[in-house]
Amino acid sequence: MTERRAKRRLMNEINVVPYIDVMLVLLVIFMITAPLITPGQIELPQIGKSLAPPVAPLEVIIKADGSLGLHDRSSTGGEQKISREELVEAIKQKQSVNTEQPVVIAGDKSVRYEEVMKVMDILQQQQVKKVGLLARPNI
Questions:
Q1: What is the structure's pLDDT at 8?
Q2: Alpha-carbon distance 117 to 129, whole Å?
Q3: Three-state SS across 66-104?
C-alpha cells in the first residue's frame, strides 16, 4: 500500500515547463506584431460645434376610408388632402428643399396593413428617401 501512495503523490505534480514555453513564444509573437499594427484614429467632436437640430418629418396619413393626407410638421400648416398621384410629387418637392427631411406613414386604427404597405411601396418605387412608419402608443 505504501507503494501506491508514493505513486499517487508523484502523479499529483504538474509539469509547468511546456506552459512557460508557450507563454514565451506568444510573448515574442506579440512583441513583434504590436509595432506593425496601426491604431485607428477616432475623430472626436470639437468643442463649440453643435449638431443641427433634427428636421420635423413629413407625415403621410392614411384615413379609414383609404384617402390620404399630408402634414408637414416643420411648417405651421395643417393637414392637406392629397391623392396617391400627387403624393410623390409633393414629397419630392419638399425633400428637394430639405434633403434631410424624413417621411413617416401613419395609418388609422381601422386601416388594413395592406394599404400602409401599398403607400410605402409607391414611395420606395419612386426613390423617396428616409421612409418609416409612425406608431402611436395607446394612452
A1: 53
A2: 16
A3: CCEEEEECCCCCCCEEECHHHHHHHHHHHHHHCCCCCEE
Q: Give pTM, 2 decimals.
A: 0.56
Cell triple for residue 56? 420635423
- Tell me if 122 sits within 8 A of 84, measured CB to CB: yes
* Amino acid sitting at position 138: N
pLDDT averaged per 10 residues, the chain (length 139)? 56 81 95 85 72 76 86 77 85 82 85 87 85 73
Burial 15-35 (b: 16+ CB within 10 A, else e): eeeeeeeeeeeeeeeeeeeee
Give the number of C-alpha atoms closer than 13 A to the C-alpha of residue 7, restricted to the C-beta side: 4
